[in-house]
Structure formats: C-alpha cells, structure tokens
Specification:
The complex is a heterodimer of chains A (610) and B (237). Chain A has 610 residues and is mainly alpha-helical. A two-stranded antiparallel sheet of chain A has the order 1-2. Chain A has 25 helices and four strands. By secondary structure, chain B is α/β, with parallel strands linked by helices. Chain B contains ten helices and ten strands. The chains are: A mainly alpha (610), B alpha/beta (237). At the A-B interface, helix 6 and helix 7 of A face helix 2 and helix 3 of B. Chain A: It holds the Pfam family BPD_transp_2. Chain A: Keywords: Amino-acid transport, Cell membrane, Membrane, Transmembrane, Transmembrane helix, Transport.
Chain lengths: 610, 237
C-alpha cells in the first residue's frame, strides 16, 4: 500500500516536470498555431545552463533557486529571438515548413550544446536544504520531488491568473481566437507573439533547470521530452492549459505504474494511450473542435502537372542509370544504390503529402519496419533474400494498415502528431524488445547471397524494383485514385459530397505509401548489411521530409531530385565535418525560409518567369 | 468641405491572383457618414478591408488625417484612429463582454470622442446586462452591438462599418441606425458598406456605388434616391 502511494507520488513529480514543459508548448501552439519541435531543445539547454549556474552559485538555497530562475529567463530570451528570427516568417507557411523549420533548430542546438558543454552526461548537485527525504508511511520519498509536486499546480494557478486577470493575457487569448481581428483593434500581433514565445520557452527552460538535481543532464533530453510533451498536449487538447495539466497527471501515473507492470514497453504504453484518447475524444480531453486551419491547404499553390515528354525522359534516365555500372566504381555504385532506395522512400512520402495533403511526421516507421522485417526474417528464420525482400513491404504495409486506420481520422497537425506517435511506438519496440530486435545493437549480417553480392548486381536489382515501384506510384498519381486523393486534399467536404469516401482513399494511400517505403527499407537493409533503431527514429522521418521539400511538393519528379541532392549532400559534404547536425539544421532552416516550393518548384517557377 | 479626413485614390486589391478592386476613389469629410453601396460581391467588404490593411496585396493612395496609410500594417492604422467593424462580427467568443471591450481599448485621442465601458453600456443598454457573459451565449444582434462597442473602445475618429444591418431583426436594425446617428452627432466620421438602401438613406450623407470592383457613381444620398437609373443598374437585384 505505502509502496503504491510512493509510486503515485513519484508519478506526480514526473507529471510536474511534464506539465511545465508541455504548458509552454501548448501556450505557444495555442497562439501561434505552430507546433514547436524545438521546444525540447529549450528544455535541454535550460538544463545545461541550469547545471552550469548551479555548479557555480548553487551552494545556497538563494543561489540555487536564483540559478534556476536565471536559466529559465535565458531560455525565454532565446525563444523570443527564435520567434523574431524564424517563426515570424513561418506563420503563413504550411505545417510541414513550421515543423521542419523548428526541427532544423533542434539539430543546430544539439551540435551547439555538445560544442559548449561536451558530449558527456553531467551530474548536477542536489538542491541545498532539500537533499534528504521524508518518510511517507515508512517509505522514504525525496523532499525535492515533493517541492516539484507542489510546483505544478502553483504554475498552473499563476498561468491562469496571467491569462485571465491581466490585459496581456486577455490580448493573448483574443489573438489565439482571431489574430487578424486583434490586429485590426490596434494590437501588434508580432510583439504579442514574441512575448508568448518568451513565456513558453522560459517554462521549458524552467522544467529543464529543475531536473538538474534529479537526473543527469544529457544530449538526448531534447527529443525525449518533446515527444512526451507532444503526447501531453495532444491528449489534453491542443492549446488547453488545464488539459495539459490533466494529461500530465495521467501520463505521469501511467509511467509510474506502467514501469511496474510492463517495464519493457513503457514507451509504447504512453503512445497507445494517446491513440486511444484520440479515437475516443478526437480533440483531446479538454480540446475543442476547431475549423480546419487555413494553413492546411496553403501548400498547394501550383497544381500537379504530368509534364510533357515525361515518359521518354524517364526512360532515358533509367537507361542512363542502368548503364552506370559500366563506368562507375564500387563506391559510386553503393552511393547510387542508396540514392535509388532513398528516391523510392521520398516518393512514397510524396504520395501522402503531395497527393493526399497528409503531412506524415513518422514515415520512417514504414521504412524501418521494412528493413527490420527483412532483417528479422534473415536472422530468425534464415529466409533467403527474395523472401526477406518480399516480407519487407508486407510487414510495413500491415503496420501502415493498422496505424493508418487511426491516423486518417484526423487531419493537419493532429495527423502529423499521430504518425509521429506510431513511429515512436515502432521505434520503442525495436529499441526495447532486446531479445528479438537486439535493441540498440541492431541486427547485423544481413547481406545479399552470393549471386547478388556484386555491387553492380545488387544495384541493378535495386534499380529494377525501385524503378518499377516508382512507375507504379506515378501511375497512381494520374489515375482516378490519384484524382480522388487530390480532390480530398483540396476540399474534403466537396469531395465527400460528390461521393468520394475521402477517409477510405487516404487510408489506402497510407497503406500504399507504407508498403513502398517498406520495400525501400528492405532493400536498404541488404545494401547496408545491418539495421538499427535509428532507421525508425524521428531524424529518419525528417530526412524524408527534407528530400520531399528539397525536391518540391507539387512535382512528381521532385522527390527524386530531392533524394539525389540530399544524399549527395549527406555523404559528400556532411561527412567531412563533425558538425553535420549543425550543417543539416541550417540547411533545413534556409530551405524553409528561401524555397517554400522546393528546388524543382523553384526552377520551374524561374522558367515560367523567364 | 475642407481637407477630408480620409482620401482614397486608385485603390487596387488582390486575393491571390484574383484582382478584386480596380481604382476605387472616395473621400470622407470630418463628421460625415458615407455609404458604400453595391450588390453582393461588388467589392464593398474588400474596400473596407483594404483601407484597414487586411488584404494580402493592395496598392493605393491612402491618406488619413494627413498620414499615409498605404504601407502601414493593420494595427498601426488602428492606432491612428481608424476603427474597423467587420460584417461577420468576429467577437472573441471565449472572452466575456468586458474582456472583449478591453481588447479594443486604446488611449484617448485628441479630436475624437473618448469612450469608456460605462459610456458604451449607456449607448447599448443590452450589453450592460451581460458584462460577464461569454460571446458564445449572445444573440446575433447583441454580438453586432458588442463588435461596434469593442471598436469604439479604441476611440477612433473614423469608423469603417461593414454591413451593419445584415442579418439583424428589424428592431435591432433600428437601434443600429440610431447608434450610427448618435456617433455622427458625437463627431465621428463613418464609412459604411450597405446593401439596404433604406438603412443607408436613414444614416448617410453621401453614397458611393461600386460594382465588380469599380466605382460607378458617387453623389449625395438624396441624389441617389432620386436617380432610378443608377439604382436599377447597380443596386436592385
């Protein structure tokens, strides 16, 4: 009994941190409609800054709490700077650009943090005056955690006062509902939003700095917390503070007790909880239905065109690629093989984004499932390569069938969050189910058999399979299925009213895209000879998005060009530097700011003007 | 009439690639009420929004009280003393009546009537009874009154009033007309867009008639009432 109580209390302490971070995220989202991927970075840097300050001044209670406050304020200032430098330019952009742009910041911050504080985990000192524990029903419980438990409701109360009892709060709530009308009443929305980012990021920094006495400060904190905060915000209802509080409490308890019952799948549990909540209450626990955000369709400014002479060009390109082994060496062939695989991966994502208007933030799930499918078949059943390759799209397709049923129920940002959640589920299975997947160590020794071991042979095999699938995807885009999908994208209501079951088509597209990505994943496993959980992780999903974005959303050839550009950049430029995250992050931010239509869209716009 | 309060000349506006307004020109004198008239889709709402800086792209000579508005964002225009009342009301439904008024509050301005919530509650007695009520629980007429009151809290010297009578019960329309006359008496200038000739003629001094984004006719309200040809060509449905 007393053990359960202490477990519940430690769940509350977790919930307090979770609430601090997610309250910031939900406030920022509520006002700016931007899901700030970099929110976790402010938490992480807040922890690092807090660690440094506490090491120096944290000997006394005043020094400790002053350090925590200073770290939080510093993160607020950085958040305000990010609003002015980046977010301000993205308010009218599609969600894809907002998510990608802020993810670019995540990458930049990761490298800068490693540069400033080094790669080792840091252990901070305990809070002075709160080092001990008290006995609760004969079980010791840390005093510091007790303070944290009290801090959650305190912050909720202060935020409530701020938003309901001050002019600033009233203006923010007004701008949340109708930004344009607020500005027509003489309120400068830009200044308001800078203030909101200050507040939101300061809360993240506060959460981070408060972690210093509890756990070590690491470079992995950012992604871990931001994904959890996403779940809290989505479960609570996006933009709802009380919802975030409630969801934090529930998820804190779920984690505290989940670890007792299912220690292997605590992460899965959290995401399953989110999926269930979203199916039962589509807008979250305390969220409200809102009109489709105007940004949802803003990506579509140029209609998809088949392009003249596309067929002959494609054949010529295929012939050229097929002839490559005659001149290219092994290294170039390996590179080309990967490019072809990534092209299929990107094109499968483009099917969802370009045709369906569905921005998936977890497309790596299907790529990785395909890769793991092949690898598991080889490792555990000794399957020959053709069977293992056939298994890849099947497993990925089945996964997409299940996840897709949930995901297509929602659109826009909720869709992106749901796909992210499913990718995290698959990732945590690969990461935590050690006996089967090898966890962090991955699965090694997935090589093609003798007949396909030659680089040229495997390249031709890849080219044939990917080329065929790409041709199929292109056919789909210009078949009635593709038209129906695009109709659903441009106007769901009108499409429904002429008898198109939009959700069903989106589900089918989801499965198709997952299957194609799975094939790419299977081919990738054999090309690399191994699979790791990173194939399923968020950065892999973002890579695919960057490829699509680089190529341009409204061209079928775009993802192919994007894959080539991205992979060459990755293997030829970024491998030269240890700071590849920094470089990639800056590239992403620049792309988002400069080429809202991608490379191919930019070029064709240029041609049209000339 | 010396030195008009607002001068609009050669006003062009676009939504995306669609060219909505083409060369609208009008002036509003101090203390004058001007009705912008035309059928549905003629460009009345867009004209008001373009003056307010709420369209994506516009080009014009826009002078207000000696200041050039053409490059200013909406909030700066509002702070110069231009009050905008949208046709679709757009009250902040999650905020109470008093909070809605608070959002509109700006410092008093020389040369324009200074409003307080109490003065506005005297002008719109209905609102006084529901200060703490949220916008979601108000009738259309009450919402329209609140929208107007909210804008007045900014102490404007010029009011852009978009379709004030649209969708309101006859009794409320009468109250609305009365309110506009009271505002004029307080010294406010008003540009209102209107489809109803009877409402416009009950409050306005002059009229500008537009169709398909172009100015077609301008003159006094009395001249418009006397000119069957103009009314038949541009106003009757």
């Amino acid at each position: 009994m007393s053990f359960l109580l202490v477990q519940a209390l430690s769940g509350l302490a977790t919930a307090a941190t979770l609430f601090l971070v997610s309250s910031g995220l939900t406030i920022v989202f509520g006002v700016t409609r931007i899901v700030n991927f970099a929110h976790g970075s402010f938490y992480m840097v807040g922890a690092y800054a807090g660690w440094s300050l506490i090491e120096r001044f944290g000997g006394t209670p005043a020094g400790f709490w002053g350090s925590v406050a200073a770290a939080a304020l510093a993160m607020g200032v950085l958040g305000a700077a990010m609003e002015v430098g980046l977010l301000r330019r993205l308010y009218r952009s599609p969600e894809l650009f907002q998510l990608l742009g802020t993810f670019g910041i995540v990458l930049v911050v990761q490298d800068l943090t490693a540069w400033a504080w080094g790669p080792e985990d840091l252990l901070g000192r305990r809070a002075p005056g709160l080092k001990g524990s008290i006995d609760i029903l004969d079980q010791p419980f840390p005093l510091y955690d007790l303070v944290l438990i009290g801090l959650g409701p305190l912050v909720l109360g202060l935020l409530w006062l701020l938003f309901n009892r001050t002019r600033w709060g009233t203006l923010v709530r007004a701008a949340t509902q109708d930004r344009e009308m607020t500005s027509a009443l003489g309120v400068d929305p830009a200044r308001l939003f800078t203030g909101v980012l200050f507040l939101g990021c300061a809360l993240a920094g506060l959460g981070g700095a408060l972690q210093v006495p509890r756990e070590s400060v690491t470079l992995q904190m950012d992604m871990a917390i931001v994904v959890e905060a996403f779940v809290v915000v989505v479960v609570g209802g996006m933009g709802s503070l009380t919802g975030a509080f409630l969801a934090s409490l529930l998820i804190g308890q779920l984690q505290a007790f989940g670890i007792l019952v299912f220690p292997q799948i605590t992460l899965v549990l959290v995401f399953l909880f989110m999926a269930v909540v979203l199916v039962l209450r589509p807008h979250g626990l305390l969220g409200r239905a809102e009109e489709v955000p105007p940004t949802a369709t803003a990506a579509v400014t140029v209609p998809l065109s088949a392009g003249r002479h596309a067929g002959p060009w494609a054949l010529a390109l295929l012939a050229l690629l097929a002839a490559a082994p005659l001149v290219a060496g092994d290294y170039a062939l390996i590179l080309l093989t990967e490019v072809v695989i990534l092209a299929l991966f990107a094109a499968s994502l483009h099917l969802l984004i370009g045709l369906g208007g569905l921005v998936s933030f977890g497309h790596a799930a299907w790529f990785g499932l395909g890769a793991y499918g092949s690898a598991l078949l080889v490792k555990h059943l000794g399957a020959p390569m053709p069977l293992a390759l056939a298994g890849a799209p099947v497993l990925a397709g089945l996964g997409a069938l299940v996840a897709g049923w949930f995901c297509v129920r929602r659109s826009g940002l909720y869709f992106a969050m749901l796909t992210l959640a499913f990718a995290q589920i698959v990732w945590s299975i690969a990461f935590q189910w050690y006996a089967v997947t090898g966890g962090d160590n991955g699965i090694l020794g997935v090589w093609p058999p003798g007949w396909a071991a030659g680089k040229a042979t495997y390249y031709w095999l890849t080219l044939g399979l990917c080329g065929g699938t790409l041709w199929l995807l292109r056919r789909v885009a210009f078949a009635p299925f593709g038209y129906a999908l695009r109709a659903g994208r441009d106007s769901g209501l009108r499409a429904e009213s002429v008898g198109i079951d939009v959700r069903r088509f989106q589900w089918m597209a989801f499965v198709l895209a997952g299957t194609a990505a799975g094939l790419a994943g299977g081919l990738y496993a054999f090309a690399k000879g191994s699979v790791f959980p990173t194939l399923l992780a968020v950065p892999q999903s973002v890579d695919a998005l960057v490829m699509v974005l680089m190529g341009g959303i409204q061209t079928v050839a775009g993802p192919l060009a994007g894959a080539v550009a991205f992979h060459l950049l990755e293997s030829e430029v970024m491998s030269l530097t240890d700071w590849w995250r920094l470089v990639l992050g800056l590239i992403i931010v620049a792309l988002v700011l400069i080429f809202p239509k991608g490379i191919v869209g930019f070029l064709s716009g240029f041609r049209r003007r000339a | 009439m010396s030195d008009p309060l607002l001068t609009v000349d050669g006003l062009q506006a676009w939504y995306g690639r669609a060219h909505i307004l083409d060369g609208i020109a009008l002036t509003i004198g101090r203390g004058e009420v001007v009705a912008l008239m035309g059928r549905n889709g003629a460009g009345k709402t867009t004209t008001l929004k373009a003056i307010m800086g709420l369209v994506e792209r516009r080009a014009a000579t826009l002078r207000f009280d000696g200041r050039d508005l053409s490059a200013l964002p909406a909030h700066r225009i509002a702070r110069l003393g231009v009050g905008y009342v949208p046709e679709d009301r757009r009250i902040f439904a999650d905020l109470t009546v008093e909070e809605n008024l608070e959002v509109g509050r700006q410092p008093p301005r020389p040369g324009a009537p200074a409003w307080t919530p109490e003065k506005l509650f005297a002008l719109f007695p209905n609102l006084a009874e529901m200060r703490g009520r949220r916008g979601t629980r108000m009738s259309g007429g009450e919402q329209q009154m609140l929208t107007l009151a909210r804008t007045l809290m900014g102490n404007p010297s010029l009011l852009l009033l978009d379709e004030p009578s649209e969708g309101l019960a006859p009794l409320i329309v009468k109250q609305m007309a009365e309110a506009v006359r009271r505002l004029k008496a307080e010294g406010l200038s008003v540009l209102l867009s209107e489809q109803s000739l009877s409402f416009a003629s009950s409050v306005a001094d002059r009229a500008c008639v537009i169709e398909t984004g172009r100015l077609r006719w301008t003159g006094t309200m009395a001249e418009l009432l006397a000119d069957d040809g103009v009314r038949a060509a541009y106003l009757s449905v």
